[in-house]
């Protein structure tokens, strides 16, 4: 992986000497930034006039251009005073994560002494003071004390750059391991950490390293201090540990070893509110925090997940290259990883992703159940689902097809699985967030509660004997009608999921880009689908799926089938809550005069909560003595 090493510091700090030596030792090209000054700048400086920012702009852009060109071929060393952060921003524009900064730092007296002893340099020593005044200490640089000998400086820089890893992965569970292999395959120098627990987690990192060829260069640790010290500064450490309290414990374990401006990325399914709290807490410690939703399971993590990072934008730029390189790519080859927004917005959208995922899974479970009641065996269900791929393709449809084909002995495995659905809590949070934000995510709640109902297995069996069921196989439904009901509910599901994102974005002023969110969900993640692909375009013109002419047309086309499927399921006691809810929701959200007037009257009756009148546009409150 090529890098541009910018050696910076005030005039007289020894940039050129160190830069040349370093380039020589690393066998990479060397460029002295001063050689790229336009004539007018050199003249000004020789006349003892300081350059202003306008003088510098073109020069800095030329160096940025040079750096970009070099990166396509090789690493290189460029020396440039780069005293202000905005100069460094220009120099590293578009190549931030491929830029390494080395700051040669020394006291005013020391450098003045050096300058005085120098001949033929166009910077008179009395211009040094303003340089020190201008210098904004870089936060993301390897800072080297220039009182050392040049060779010692080179050794230290090389040690920091070469021997240290550029990225650390903390926690080698299934996802952590896959991400390590993904990073290593992409040529990144990584350090991997897994804790030591006597007799339970022993030499996890070391054993993992020897298991895979691509990890031969990776460093393996079970000691936090050694792990942290193995990383280049500012350090980038991605946590792949269980969401919840563990994240806080890990942060506390790491903190004593970290330095200012190090970056922690939480790649787990963390609660977005906690992410904001951790962000604020770590900011007070001078450490950056990025909450990044990661979707795609084990395979996605290995081959390219969808990544949803949020938090401090400047910190994100430092890790952008790692995350974007390892992420899945969309149909145009763009990374399915984008800076989502501030605070915990990345984890928020990952949470909603999972809510949508719950519904997509539930809908497939419902349609498969209908097909089963209609007499299809598992192979036939698989074939039916497979035939839907041209019209409703999605990752979840694909895996469900494979699931239905899987046999164990003479029977299908799916029929042997206990019908109690687990959950790790994100669907729960999505439902809570919906309630808190006042957004009717009825399908997500319905999918979540279906899992909860499934959990009451023993009670279900008991109650089954008390209640008569009209279940027959006499469903008069075509496969097309079932497919259309499924497509109908999927649109409503996506409407509700994105609605929740819109409302959160408004409430928390996150300014989220829906089209971009849909785009990073077109590949790598669990809810990637042809519909998601369509939504990338839909969200370019509206934030409301149900306002889009194409979606309106589809809903109108599919609704009769949805009604027919759901009503027959009700008649036949087939449980299809998500399909049902989709119809109920569309009816509700398209009702001009709803039944809420009656609720208002009831509230006013028993609690004098007052109501507004449709014949009074002023919004005045009325109370009636109803008796
Ligand atoms: C993903 C998944 C992933 C995981 C969930 C499952 O996007 O890769 O959503 O995050 O599968 O934790 O959640 P439940 O256990 O709650 O179904």
Summary tags:
627 residues, 27 helices, Rossmann fold, 7-stranded mixed beta sheet, 5-stranded parallel beta sheet, 14 strands, N-(1-d-carboxylethyl)-l-norvaline Dehydrogenase, domain 2, alpha/beta, 52% helix, binds 6-phosphogluconic acid
The CATH C-level class name of the largest domain:
Mainly Alpha
The chain-level mean pLDDT equals: 94
Structural class: alpha/beta
CATH homologous superfamily annotation of the largest domain: N-(1-d-carboxylethyl)-l-norvaline Dehydrogenase, domain 2
Give the strand tally: 14
The neighbouring-strand order within the major sheet is: 8-7-6-9-10-11-12
- Number of discrete domains: 4
Radius of gyration, CA atoms, in whole angstroms: 30 Å
Could you characterize the architecture of this molecule?
- The chain has 627 residues and is of the alpha/beta class.
- The chain folds into four domains: 4-162, P-loop containing nucleotide triphosphate hydrolases (Rossmann fold); 167-343, NAD(P)-binding Rossmann-like Domain (Rossmann fold); 354-589, Orthogonal Bundle (N-(1-d-carboxylethyl)-l-norvaline Dehydrogenase, domain 2), CATH 1.10.1040; 599-627, 6-Phosphogluconate Dehydrogenase, domain 3 (Single alpha-helices involved in coiled-coils or other helix-helix interfaces, Up-down Bundle).
- A seven-stranded mixed sheet has the order 8-7-6-9-10-11-12, sandwiched between helices. Strands 2-3-1-4-5 form a five-stranded parallel sheet. It has a two-stranded antiparallel sheet with strand order 13-14.
- The longest helix is centred in the C-terminal third of the chain and has 30 residues, at 479-508.
């Amino acid at each position: 992986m090529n890098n541009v090493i910018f050696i910076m510091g005030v005039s007289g700090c020894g940039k050129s000497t160190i830069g040349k030596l370093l380039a020589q030792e690393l066998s990479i090209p060397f460029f002295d930034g001063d050689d790229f000054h336009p004539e007018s700048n050199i003249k000004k400086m020789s006349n003892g006039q300081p350059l202003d920012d306008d003088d510098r702009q073109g020069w800095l852009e030329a160096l940025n251009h040079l750096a970009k060109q070099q990166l396509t071929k090789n690493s290189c060393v460029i020396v440039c005073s780069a005293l202000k952060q905005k100069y460094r921003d220009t120099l590293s524009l578009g190549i931030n994560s491929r830029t390494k900064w080395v700051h040669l730092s020394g006291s005013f007296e020391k450098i003045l002494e050096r300058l005085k002893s120098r001949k033929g340099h166009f910077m008179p020593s009395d211009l040094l003071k303003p340089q020190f005044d201008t210098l904004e200490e870089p936060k993301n640089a390897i800072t080297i004390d220039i009182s050392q000998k040049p060779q010692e400086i080179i050794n230290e820089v090389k040690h920091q750059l070469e021997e240290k890893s550029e990225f650390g992965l903390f926690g080698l569970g299934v996802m952590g391991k896959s991400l390590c292999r993904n990073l290593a395959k992409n040529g990144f120098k990584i350090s991997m950490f897994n804790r030591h627990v006597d007799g339970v987690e022993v030499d996890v990192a070391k054993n993992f390293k020897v298991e895979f060829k691509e990890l031969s260069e990776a460093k393996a640790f079970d000691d936090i201090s050694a792990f942290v010290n193995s990383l280049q500064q500012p350090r980038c450490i991605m946590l792949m540990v269980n969401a919840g309290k563990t994240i806080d414990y890990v942060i506390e374990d790491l903190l004593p070893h970290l330095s200012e401006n190090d970056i922690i990325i939480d790649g787990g399914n963390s609660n977005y509110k906690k992410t904001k709290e951790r962000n604020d807490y770590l900011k007070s410690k001078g450490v950056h925090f990025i909450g990044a939703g990661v979707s795609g399971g084990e395979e996605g993590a290995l081959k390219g997940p969808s990544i949803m990072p949020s938090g401090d934008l400047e910190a994100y730029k430092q890790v952008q290259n790692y995350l974007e390189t390892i992420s899945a790519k969309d149909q145009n080859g763009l990374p399915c990883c984008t800076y989502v927004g501030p605070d915990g917005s990345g984890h928020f959208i990952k949470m909603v992703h999972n809510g949508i995922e719950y519904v997509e899974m539930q809908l497939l479970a419902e349609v498969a159940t209908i097909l089963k009641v209609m007499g299809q065996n598992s192979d036939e269900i698989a074939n039916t689902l497979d035939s839907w791929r041209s019209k409703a393709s999605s990752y979840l449809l694909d895996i469900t097809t494979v699931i239905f084909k899987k046999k164990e002995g003479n029977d299908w495995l799916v029929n042997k699985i206990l019908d109690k659905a687990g959950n790790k809590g994100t669907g729960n949070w999505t439902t809570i967030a919906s309630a808190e934000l006042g957004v009717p995510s009825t399908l997500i709640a319905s999918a979540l509660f279906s899992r909860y109902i499934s959990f009451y297995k023993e009670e279900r069996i008991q109650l089954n004997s008390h209640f008569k069921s009209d279940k027959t196989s006499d469903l008069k439904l075509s496969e097309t009608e079932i497919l259309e009901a499924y497509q109908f509910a999927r649109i409503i599901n996506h409407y509700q999921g994105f609605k929740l994102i819109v409302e959160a974005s408004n409430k928390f002023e996150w300014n989220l880009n829906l089209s971009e969110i849909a785009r990073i969900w077109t590949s790598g993640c669990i809810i990637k689908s042809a519909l998601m692909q369509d939504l990338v375009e839909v969200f370019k013109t509206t934030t409301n799926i149900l306002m889009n002419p194409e979606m309106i047309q589809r809903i109108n086309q599919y609704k009769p089938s949805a009604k027919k499927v759901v009503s027959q399921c009700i008649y036949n006691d087939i449980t299809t809550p998500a399909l049902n809810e989709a119809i109920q929701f569309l009816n509700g959200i398209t009702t001009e005069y709803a039944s809420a007037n009656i609720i208002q009257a009831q509230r006013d009756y028993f609690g004098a909560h007052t109501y507004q009148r449709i014949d009074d546009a002023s919004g005045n409150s009325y109370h009636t003595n109803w008796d």
